[in-house]
Specification:
The complex is a heterodimer of chains A (418) and B (940). Chain A is α/β, with parallel strands linked by helices and 418 residues long. Chain A has 13 helices and 18 strands. The chains are: A alpha/beta (418), B alpha/beta (940).
């Protein structure tokens, strides 16, 4: 939320009352569910896997998970028996351009080389075709970000694609700031090279940081002057507080290095390597040391021109000690419903099976600062659950049912999309 | 057989050694630049000096060191100077363009006074676009449509970078008073995007003031700024440049198209005391008084470019009024008019000005001397007079003629450009005369004929004049006719009176015109139909040759021109012999017609896929075995023959082996490769007991047509020759070494071709009747030597029945059967005698024939004596022959009856450019034949 000072507490109170009267929360009346399943991949920090359990859903959240044996299910819970199927947290695609009908302006709004102030939030749109297909692939959350034609495209939004109401759909208004280094902006934007872009980006970030610090001084009463609100910089405050990351489209060794040096080391920004391919994995040690997340894809391999070997990029980061690895589709480069296939491909090129699953769930949520709500199945967490016929990254497995915020939003028994 | 590749190498070597003929463009050029190494003179029909007089007729100009030394008419005073003769062409001073469009484009923002056009001049550029319109000096425009758009410079487009110089750096300063709104260009400059979005966008800068108020304000503000800048320590580059320009005293160029803008421009100049000239003043005709009072020069633009008919103009409500009379109206009020245009084609603009009422002299000065004066280079270019730079252009005709073209541009005495050299244009000439007879009866007065690459392209009162075409004006008294045809000649066969059989190729005898041909050519005979002196009843070949030509290709007009028959005896025997020959020929012809029709049907069916599909070919076809070995056979031919090839191009004799098998009168067999190759070639042919005729089909050889003709002079011996593609002949003698039909196997495996259904079978080739086939299919002519009414009657009967045109040679006694002769298809080529006595009356035979509707033709039956043939015809005209009949007989009728009218005999499109230029009527005794052109080339 934009931390804009509220004018009067009275007005806020009246507004809240009106809201409550007009829209009695639908969550209040939500049906309570008891999901029985043969296996639950919780994807929590302890990597807990439970067999033959019941997952209780209440008020859009996971209430508890208990063994089936000897369990007592209260009468007001509807029991749904998934038999030996797997319950897995909804997958998260942290690099996505499609959950909007304004795809064109999202990827191609070329205001300037850096565009502080532009927000994907203003373009996000539930119930689109791609959102619905996304569920059928088990993907319940995406980070919808501006395209990479400019160096700083604006702010991404985290969207819960299964939801049909805008309030539910927007999971996090400012999900990341999208930065695209080298490559695409070099090709698309005014023929500026990397050094100019780094100079210009640094200038922009410095202005944002100055704004943040000026407010900090004011808020901590070190300064009496209230800075002027500036829409260009306001959203950056969360970046400097590390409540959301910079999702940085960076993939080549040198470029990744420059990104780490500037964004992580110099500005102290929480960094998410995004669209991570090519030979960036060779910087795995530096990435791991700084606790940076690396989101890999859409290309899962890189051919080393020197020793002429084909190398898995996720596997490369993994072998270099990076644990916080996720996977992305760059939809519509690949459709986001193919995210599980990305997992399979990463494993095909040497990545670890469980790590791939954890990357698409826990680490992606962690990267977005949402690991306390989504990405794992724990009591109190949002009930975004996908029912799989087996291991999600096994090509033979299918998505049979999807629950989002405790409600069934996709059922392949009624209509299988694919 | 020789492999194809080695033959190709031989051909390539010949091609490389062939002397290369250079075009006339380089005639005066002694070095790479085309600049004559020394001083030289030029001659031309007209030199437009554009000084005190417009032009000099039949004039010369001496050029020394790139400058004009002197000019005059008549003889060149310094006879030792090399002369470049442009003949019928006109020379004009190199044109001066006040607005060259080359090097357009520049920064599009702001006031452009600091721009100096000279800075974008690239002396290494290609100036063809200007040269082709005759422009050798040009003012480069300052960029864009801004209000003050920079300083114009004057440059020269030289033959090389050294000669391409800036003549005047600061010629003028352009101020554009036009309202440019709505002309497809935004008045706003490009939006500048900041690199970070927090830097605000600025509204686009305006390129120019868009109102008259704004323009005046902008101009006067600028002038004020320049004055103030004098006192500033560091004035801007723009103001510095403007100040410098104002001090130079050079004029402002005020661009103003509409009357309102023109008026504003005049006012602005007056109020600020600025020297100006007006440009692009389309509506100046509405303000003649004001412009005359201002005493300024005006550049008037004309629509000389390719117009776009779909373009409806900028403003349909208040359109700009164009008027071709503008230039003339201004001129008449004493305004100095300079002519411009929407393209560099200033001569087109000048012609439009003439249409509007300007004199030609004024119009030509308005694209040369006057713009030169205006731009400050009038003392160097723009006129052709002593002391000026030798910048001139060569035009093939009237400079303002719409069909005329600039052919060459010469700058500082060097040929900078020549269209013919640049574009490798065909060799072309436009010949003009007072009268042209086209040979078919058409007469054109004050007419021209265009010949390109030796062929007539057009004839008429005025024809197109491609830029590469040389102009040849023969004068108003001159008369042009097609070249004459000697319908029966022995030119080139001197000393050889033997009978030539119809299967022999006369073209081997002709490789280039012999010296004695020239006399015949100079007499006006451009085509000679050559036949052997002694004819034969079975037919002799005829060839048509030109009387000029450096090689076989140039010399031969038609290699297989037809057949000559000689008939003797009574009418009945002549008829019988003719019928026999013609019937056989007809049968042969019909067989081929049938075959061709069947083949066409077969090909059509094949194309439409209507033939049954045959089995796909499997790799190589099995060796061909033919005929099957026969146990016992003993004929005169079958067996193995050892043959020797000698003579012709062969260095030393070669051996080969023929294995032949006779079946009736046809034989098949194989021939070994005399070059030692392992592949045998198939041989097929006929043998009638004595005459051996065969065709060999070697694979992978560069020959197509190898024919063997031989006679069995004694048993077991064949003697004859091998003809290779009609190019050379080799003697053959062969001896049989073993008898009996051999087992013949073509050893080489023939590469399989799709063995679809076989087409119709080809009829057997007959060398004797092949020429007749050409005659019967209308592709060649036939002539019959016949004397006496009976013989002539028989000929007329035999050919009339078949509706075949025929030329009767001699034809004495024809008058007795005139009523039986169809004049459309029979011509009688009289020889020596053109009169006959009928009782006391002297009858002119050609006249008698003419009156009977039969074409009287004229033959020399001689060789270089043919040069007297035209005089012979002149004598006939003197005796009373209609001169037009005489002309037609020597040209179109001769060609028509010999089926050669598609290439000679008239000045029709596509015919050879053979023409005669007389200084009067062709058969008038007072007239001389002045010039002869054969295939567009003058006979020397």
């Amino acid at each position: 939320m934009i931390a804009r000072p509220i004018g009067s507490p009275l007005i806020a109170l009246v507004a809240a009352l009106v809201f409550v009267l007009a829209f009695a929360s639908p969550g209040m009346a939500q049906e309570k569910l008891a999901l029985m399943a043969g296996k639950v991949l919780t994807m929590d920090e302890k990597d807990t896997v439970l067999n033959n359990v019941i997952v209780f859903l209440k008020d859009r959240k996971i209430e508890k998970i208990i063994p089936q044996r000897g369990a007592v299910i209260p009468a007001d819970y509807r029991v749904i028996d998934h038999r030996d199927k797997w319950l897995v947290p909804g997958l998260i695609d942290p690099h996505n351009h499609t959950s909007s009908e304004e795809f064109g302006s999202l990827v191609g709004e070329f205001g300037s080389l850096t565009n502080p102030g532009l927000r994907a939030l203003d373009l996000a749109m539930p119930r689109t075709e791609s959102n619905i297909r996304s569920l059928a692939g088990g993907v319940t959350t995406v980070l919808l970000i501006p395209g990479s034609a400019t160096n700083l495209g604006g702010f991404g939004v985290v969207a819960r694609v299964g939801c049909s109401e805008m309030d539910d759909f927007i999971l996090k208004e400012i999900g990341s700031v999208k930065i695209a280094q080298a490559g695409n902006p070099e090709r698309f934007y005014f023929r500026k090279g990397r050094s100019y872009m780094n100079y210009n980006l640094r200038q922009t970030l410095q202005k944002a940081k100055d704004y943040h610090e000026a407010w900090n001084r004011f808020e901590s009463k070190k300064s009496k002057t209230q800075p002027k609100f500036d829409a260009h910089w306001e959203s950056f405050r969360g970046l400097f507080r590390r409540t959301f990351p910079a999702s940085v489209h960076t993939q080549i060794y040198q470029v990744v290095h420059a990104s780490i040096a500037m964004l992580s080391d110099e500005f102290g920004i929480k960094l998410m390597i995004d669209h991570g391919t090519f030979d960036g994995y060779k910087l795995g040690k530096q990435v791991a040391e700084r606790g940076i997340h690396a989101m890999i894809g859409p290309r899962m391999w890189w051919m080393d021109p020197v020793d002429r070997t084909i190398n898995g990029t996720a596997a490369g980061y993994w072998k270099n000690g990076v644990k916080k690895i996720g996977l992305n589709t760059d939809a519509g480069v690949l459709p986001q419903e193919d995210l599980p296939m990305q997992g399979a491909m990463s494993v095909r090129y040497g990545f670890d099976t469980y790590a791939a699953l954890k990357g698409m769930t826990y680490w992606a949520a962690d990267s977005l600062g949402l690991a306390n709500r989504i990405g794992s199945l724990q009591p109190g967490f949002d009930a975004d659950i996908v029912v799989w016929s087996g291991n999600p990254i096994d090509f033979r497995s299918s998505v049979d049912k999807v629950y989002v915020l405790g409600s069934e939003v996709y059922n392949a028994d009624e209509r299988r999309i694919y | 057989m020789l492999k194809a590749s080695s033959w190709m190498m031989v051909l390539c070597a010949i091609a490389l050694l062939w002397p290369v003929e250079f075009g006339s463009a380089a005639q005066a050029g002694d070095d790479e630049t085309g600049r004559p190494a020394q001083d030289y003179a030029v001659r031309a029909r007209r030199i437009y000096v554009l000084d005190k007089v417009d032009y000099l007729e039949d004039a010369w100009m001496i050029i020394r060191g790139g400058k004009i030394d002197s000019l005059g008419t008549g003889a060149i005073p310094d006879a030792d100077l090399p002369v470049v003769d442009f003949r019928g062409a006109s020379l004009l001073p190199g044109l001066v363009s006040t607005e060259s469009r080359i090097f357009v484009g520049a920064d599009a923002t702001g006031m452009g006074a600091r721009y100096v056009a000279a800075d974008k001049f690239n002396p290494y550029a290609n100036f063809q676009a200007s040269w082709r319109h005759g422009v050798t000096t040009a003012r480069l425009t300052s960029p864009g449509r801004r209000f003050v758009s920079g300083i114009g410079s004057v440059v020269r487009f030289g033959a090389n970078a050294e000669d391409s110089t800036v003549l005047v750096r600061q010629a003028d300063l352009t101020v554009n008073f036009n309202d440019e709104a709505g002309r497809g260009e935004s008045p706003d400059a490009e939006l500048v995007t900041p690199s970070s979005m927090d830097v605000p966008y600025r509204p686009a800068e305006r390129r120019r003031p868009e109102t008259r108020l704004g323009r005046i304000l902008a101009l006067e503000t600028l002038l004020r700024d320049v004055r103030v800048a004098k006192n500033q320590d560091e004035p801007s580059l723009k103001l510095l440049a403007l100040g410098e320009f104002l001090e130079s005293g050079r004029p402002f160029r005020f661009d103003a198209e509409r009357r309102g803008d023109i008026l504003q421009a005049l006012e602005a100049a007056k109020r600020n005391g600025l020297p100006i000239y007006l440009a692009g003043a389309t509506e100046a005709h509405a303000l003649v008084d004001e412009i005359a009072a201002a005493k300024i020069s005006v550049v008037v633009d004309f629509d000389n470019a390719l117009p776009d008919p779909s373009f409806n103009g900028f403003d349909p409500v208040t359109p700009i009024i164009e008027d071709d009379r503008t230039a003339a109206v201004l001129e008449n009020r004493g305004v100095r008019v300079i002519i411009g245009g929407h393209s560099d084609d200033l001569l087109m603009s000048a012609a439009l000005a003439v249409k509007g009422g300007m004199t030609e002299g004024a119009a030509l000065r308005a694209v040369t001397a006057r713009p030169a004066d205006l731009l400050g280079v009038g003392d160097r270019v723009g006129r052709l007079k002593a002391g000026m730079d030798a910048d001139f252009v060569v035009i093939n005709g009237d400079p303002l003629g719409t069909s005329s073209r600039v052919q060459q541009a010469w700058v500082l005495g060097s040929q900078a450009w020549s269209l013919a050299a640049v574009d490798k244009m065909p060799e072309a000439v436009v010949v003009r005369a007072g009268k042209i007879y086209d040979g078919k009866g058409g007469v054109y007065l004050d007419a021209e004929v265009l010949i390109e690459d030796g062929k007539v392209v057009a004839v008429g009162h005025r024809v197109q004049r491609p830029a590469y075409a040389r102009m040849h004006d023969a004068g108003p008294e001159a008369v042009i006719t097609p070249g004459f045809i000697d319908i029966h000649s022995t030119l080139g066969l001197e000393g050889d009176s033997s009978t030539v059989k119809s299967d022999q190729n006369l073209s081997k005898l002709f490789s280039r015109a012999r010296p004695e041909f020239a006399a015949v050519a100079r007499a006006g005979i451009t085509t000679a139909v050559v036949a052997p002196g002694k004819g034969s009843s079975s037919g002799s070949p005829i060839i048509a040759i030109k009387t000029q030509g450096k090689n076989r290709k140039e010399l031969i007009s038609k290699a297989a021109a037809g057949v000559k028959l000689t008939v003797r005896g009574s009418g009945a025997s002549v008829l019988k012999s003719l019928e026999s020959t013609l019937n056989s020929a007809d049968n042969y012809h019909k067989k081929w017609l049938k075959y061709e029709a069947e083949l066409a049907a077969f090909e059509a069916a094949k194309k439409n896929g209507k033939l049954p599909k045959a089995a796909a070919p499997k790799g190589k076809t099995p060796p061909k075995v033919s005929p099957k070995p026969s146990a016992e056979a003993s004929d005169a031919l079958s067996g193995t023959w050892e043959a020797t090839l000698s003579g012709g191009p062969m260095g030393e004799p070669m051996k080969l082996t023929m294995r032949l098998a006779l079946e009736g009168t046809d034989f098949t067999g194989t021939v070994t490769d005399p070059f030692g190759g392992s592949q045998d070639a198939p041989i097929t042919g006929t043998f009638d007991g004595t005459t051996f005729e065969a065709k060999v089909e070697p694979e992978d050889a560069p020959f197509e047509n190898v024919r063997v003709t031989a006679k069995m002079t004694e048993p077991e011996v064949l003697k004859g020759s091998v003809d290779v593609d009609g190019i050379f002949e080799i003697d053959l003698s062969a001896k049989r070494t073993s008898k009996g039909k051999p087992k013949i196997t073509v050893k080489r495996a023939v590469t399989a071709v799709a063995s679809g259904p076989k087409g119709p079978k080809k009829p057997k080739y007959s060398a004797r009747f092949e020429p007749f086939r050409k005659v019967l299919s209308g592709k060649a002519g036939i002539m019959v030597a016949a004397t006496g009414a009976e013989a002539v009657g028989a000929v007329v009967q035999a050919f009339g029945k078949r509706k075949l045109p025929v030329v009767i040679l001699g034809g004495a006694g024809a008058h007795e059967v005139l009523d039986k002769i169809d004049g459309n298809s029979v011509g009688i080529a009289i020889w020596r005698q053109y009169t006959r006595q009928d009782k006391a009356r002297n009858i002119l035979i050609p006249d008698e024939l003419d009156r009977a509707g039969v074409s009287p033709l004229f033959q020399s039956n001689g060789s270089w004596g043919a040069s007297r043939l035209p005089r012979f015809v002149r004598a006939a005209v003197r005796e009373g022959l209609n001169p037009e009949t005489a002309l037609r007989s020597l040209t179109y009728d001769a060609a028509r009856l010999m089926r050669m009218d598609d290439s000679v005999g008239s000045l029709s499109r596509g015919c050879d450019g053979d023409l005669l230029i007389f200084d009067g009527e062709p058969f008038d005794a007072r007239t001389s034949l002045v010039e002869v052109l054969i295939r567009g080339k003058e006979v020397q």
